[in-house]
């Protein structure tokens, strides 16, 4: 019997997904003559990890409905390993295992949770804890699992020798193979962030650099009631911060007869001023289902289209060469639902429209002409430029004019996202998810121009996708309107600029769309997540690997470079390390979400399966010489 061990560093949902795929593939790939031990290393609770730990505000919620969250593969997942099904969050909540949750408040929420509800993050934490325990129990016939509740600070060992995982205590874990599933990382300050930190220190102000909102308890407590606070950013991080600084300080929302909300302050709230590049909050999540059949995706941006893109010569430019096919795919999802769910608002049969639409380039004049003939109401047509920058070219005569425009924009968004008559937006959302699942192949191919990779794919596309597809539940936008009514939330406008003014010793915020108006604040909060490149990460483990040349950054993006087939860590000479794999948001594989919608062919699930098979094949090679060679691992 040959003893082989794997150390998994970081035991959040991504690691749990990997362990699930090890369970699924072990009967085929794990030699019976191998005694396998899996070490799980993380100071945070295994399963939920740091981001989804139970110990956070009960006011914070997910931005996905319970029926749209799963940790398990299904028949739609394209992978080499077998499907190992399991319940979605909604299905689990309705089952007997949810009744065993220890926290009575979470248990009470689970008893009332509907499939279309947006659960608290504590509920998701309970689900992830259950998935982890279920998965490790299923590992018992194949491996011994040992949990180490410590941080790992280094990994040492050559390509041909066991790896030494150094723990914060100074102890080491010896393993034949190491997997880095570190999740979302914090980052050391950039030069501008350090400059603002120094400015705040000199003038006794508050400056909060990018961080996870749930980790900012002590820092937020230092903000005084009535203090003017600028939030730079208007996405999910901003929404969480607004919740913590208002309702989290004792305020309450009261329903009005017209369906809107009124906010009853506690008197402990600061005064919030929010702005961003777009100047508007992320679109609310839809509150309805498709009215027609699901669009058969992918159609115009699937594996064959990606193969064609990657088969040429020379570097690709994302906006010029990839985006037109992506846009056409999203438009296809939109119009598929419009024609099938609302045929009375179209002027030709779907089959006729699709036959004419299929050969046309997205930006060809003939495409616009076809849509104009087939879809008479401009409000039913998809307009990516207007969606991306809803306030582009707009100027405002006064803060009140900006306020009324923003309030009208939010009300219109709520009405549209809550009205099934606009379910074409949901068709576009389905296509967005499909595109999202194909793009990791493009990113990992090495064909994208390095500048376009960072500026367009990681920059513009990720922001556009998040703006349309990763917004908050609708009630959060209703709360923003109520806070605006109460005078506790003000809108700063698009293309927000913030200056550190030495003369006044204050932060000055202004928008070019509102000439002459300047907001003065004593606190500036970067309402976004940290961008942790390999050079800027606060992880000593990754910094040491980089310093020794045992890891390297992907050019321009700064992400940890990994092999696109196996996930192996690539060193500065371009060689994949045969004993080290890395998965997750900090890697060039770019599959951020560790859980997914059911039947969505999640990139993370595909990567988990490929990595699990690579690990088990490596275990087989390290095992007895009589073990037969196994099939090659599939590409991500």
From TrEMBL:
FAD-dependent urate hydroxylase HpyO/Asp monooxygenase CreE-like FAD/NAD(P)-binding domain location = 7-184
In terms of superkingdom, the source organism counts as: Bacteria
Transmembrane feature ranges: none
Query: What name goes with this protein?
Result: FAD/NAD(P)-binding protein
Instruction: Report the source organism.
Output: Streptacidiphilus fuscans
